Every structure is written in C-alpha cells, then in structure tokens.
Amino acid sequence: MARGWGRAGIWAAMALGLAACGGPGPRDQAELDALTPEQIYVQGESLLEQGQEEDAAFYFSEVERLYPYSDWAKRGLIMAAFAYHRDRQYEDARAAAQRYLDFFPADEDAAYAQYLLALSFYDQIDDVGRDQGLTFQALQALRTVIEVYPDSPYAADAVAKFDLAFDHLAAKEMEIGRYYLSRGHYTAALNRFRIVVEDYQVTRHTPEALHRLVEGYLSLGLDAEAQTAGAILGANYQATDWYRDSYALLTGRGLRPVPVGDNWLSAIYRQVIRGEWI
C-alpha cells in the first residue's frame, strides 16, 4: 500500500512541477524517448489544465506514437482528440477520434470518440450561409452515436444536436427560396420550398414554406396548388401567422384554402387527413 502511494505521489509531484513551470516541457525527441508513457501523459494533462491545448495534444499524441500498444496509448489518443477539439483544431480532432475508433472500436471510450467526431463537424455549422457539406457530415456522425451507442451518456445530446442540424439544412433551403422569391424567380423558389415540405417537414420551417408556396403559386396563376398548400397549412398550423397570411392572400382572390386537383400537394394533403403526415 505504501509503495503504491509513493508512486502516485511521484506522479502528482511531477504534475505540480510541470504546472509550476508553465512551459510545454521537452519537445526534444531524445528527451521524450527517455520518458515513460505515463510521464508523457501526465505532462499532457498538466498542459491541458493550463489551457495549453495545442501542446497538450502534442504530448497525448506522442504517447500513442511512442507506445502504440500500451494502455496509455488509448488514453493518450482519446485525450488528443479532446484537446484538439477544445483548441478548435477540428480536422486534427476528427483524425484522432477516427484513429481511436479504428484501433479500439469496442473500447469503453469508443462512444465518446464517435461523439467527438460528430462534434468536430457540428461545431462548424453555426452559420447558415456556409456550405452545407459539414452539416450532412455532422448528421451522419450524430446518427452513428444515436444508433450504435444508444445507451451511452452522449446519445441524448446527439439526438438534440441532430434535430438542430436537420433544422439547419431546412433553414438553408428557406434562405435560398426567399432569395429567389424576392427576385421573381418563382419556379426556383418553389423548388426550394417543396424540399422543405417534403424532406424537412418535422422542422420549424414547414409553416413558412407552405405559406411561401401559396405566395409563389398564386404569382404563377396556379390556384389549385396554392389552395392545396393553404389547406395543408390550415390542417396543421392553423394558429400561426403564416396561415392567417395565406388565408388573407387566398380569400383576397376569391379562393379558399381547400385541396384542389391532383398534384404533389394533394398527395400530401391526403396523408394529413389519414394521419400519415410525419
């Protein structure tokens, strides 16, 4: 017992000493080679506590590089992914997390590695104007967390972030659709709003998309489609301002928000009536 406590005390003293010096420690290869994996790992931990994520990631990565078959290598690799992510070096975070999953897919930290992988995409999609490739990749990675690790402590947060990322894609379609609509490019705008109604119907953007369909179809003189879009809006979102605005547009032209004709919106309306909307 005393022997074990003594060893722990040595590592604790080493960590305190490193913290006191405030520097990144040795990066000379010969000096690193002389350290045990535990010593290198402790240096990484100390640097991480000091907020020096880039240096911490370096040491965690060195543990895995110099001692690839040790238990410390697993710890170092997952901590490297964490340090890179905290430093917003997302590509490096993804690489480390993916490497962990490749080498230790059944390990207890595999769920966390997948979660970090997803976050490295998700944390870059906050601007709706950016390319949506990252959003699709975030959705795919989050889905893996949800489906492969449903009992992990990260699954619930992955579900919440998946819904937000999904909503983000719908927001992008709406942004483009509004742009086209404002410039009178009605067909292009309608195509975008249709995507929201068909593919993103569980997002918060669906009521507006239906209203914009009413606007666009009325502008093109396609009264049947406009009326049917209004009927769907009324059946699902009657209490919204979007429905009130659509109702005013339709009745102002002597039309009613009722299903008319046989078009793609009519098929959706029939689904709504049968309770198969979602």
UniProtKB/TrEMBL annotation:
<keyword id="KW-0564">Palmitate</keyword>
<dbReference type="Pfam" id="PF13525">
    <property type="entry name" value="YfiO"/>
</dbReference>
<comment type="subunit">
    <text>Part of the Bam complex.</text>
</comment>
<comment type="similarity">
    <text>Belongs to the BamD family.</text>
</comment>
<dbReference type="InterPro" id="IPR039565">
    <property type="entry name" value="BamD-like"/>
</dbReference>
<dbReference type="InterPro" id="IPR017689">
    <property type="entry name" value="BamD"/>
</dbReference>
<comment type="function">
    <text>Part of the outer membrane protein assembly complex, which is involved in assembly and insertion of beta-barrel proteins into the outer membrane.</text>
</comment>
<keyword id="KW-0732">Signal</keyword>
<protein>
    <recommendedName>
        <fullName>Outer membrane protein assembly factor BamD</fullName>
    </recommendedName>
</protein>
<keyword id="KW-0449">Lipoprotein</keyword>
<feature type="domain" description="Outer membrane lipoprotein BamD-like">
    <location>
        <begin position="35"/>
        <end position="229"/>
    </location>
</feature>
<dbReference type="InterPro" id="IPR011990">
    <property type="entry name" value="TPR-like_helical_dom_sf"/>
</dbReference>
<keyword id="KW-0472">Membrane</keyword>
<keyword id="KW-0998">Cell outer membrane</keyword>
